[in-house]
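Supplementary notes for students who missed Thursday's class. We covered one full example, reproduced here. Read the sequence, then the structure, then the short commentary at the end.
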Amino acid sequence: CSVVLEEDAPEETSAPLIDELLTMRPPMRKVPVAVYKFTDVTGQRKPGNNLALLSSAVTQGGDIWLLQALTRAGHGEWFQVIERMELENLLKERQIIRNTRKSYDGKKAEKIKPLLFAGVLLTGGIVGYDTNTSTGGLGVRYLGIGISDEYRKDMVTVALRLISVQTGEVLLAVSSQKTILSTKLSA
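Structure (token representation):
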């Protein structure tokens, strides 16, 4: 089984936009950004032929993919990505450092640097997963022998909001759809 992602935007509008983004100069200063959660809110499960599967149809790690995209944007020159998803573990580790330094160095212990704060938050999630928006195939079988080719088209919708930490104002709200084409060839 193979999966192909296809852009929904017409090529004549998406190609120049991508070229423009790749050639843009980075900002004078990286934008400090934090992502808390970017979840699957579709509730979709993988379809099964004979029984229900408990596995989710879309990734439960959308926040991980978003963080990776932010750190790579503009070859790492666009965003200062600040950890917030593992904040509890981060704070525990910082407490261990403080306690260890205090135990060994006493009052002369070097202070730990303060955590960075984000200027903007990115939030949102995977808000739609429409399966079998188009299906089809072709095949010939005689007494169970032969070949067949099947395809299926699914649609995933993602929503994203950029929020100012200072004011709480939603600075940007966008959504995007991707088509997922799956094919199956059997003989």
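Commentary. The chain has three helices and six strands. The two ends are 13 Å apart (CA to CA). If anything here is unclear, bring it to office hours.
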